[in-house]
Amino acid sequence: MIVEATVGYPAWLQSRLPHPVVWIGGLIAGLERRWNDPETPERRRRELGVATVAILIVTMVVAGVLIESLPLPEIVAFAVVILAGSLGLAQRSLYDHVAAVARPLTAGSLPGAQTAVGMIVGRDTETMDEAEVATAALESLAESFNDGVVAPVFWFVVGGLPGLFAYKAVNTADSMIGHMEPRWRAFGWAAAKADDLMNWIPARIAGGLIALAAGKGWRTMLRDARKHASPNAGWTEAAMAGGLGVQLGGPVRYDGVVSQRPVFGEGRRPEAGDLKRGLGVYIRACGLLWLLLLVGGLMWPR
Question: Annotated Gene Ontology MF terms (predicted)?
Answer without folding.
Answer: ABC-type vitamin B12 transporter activity; threonine-phosphate decarboxylase activity
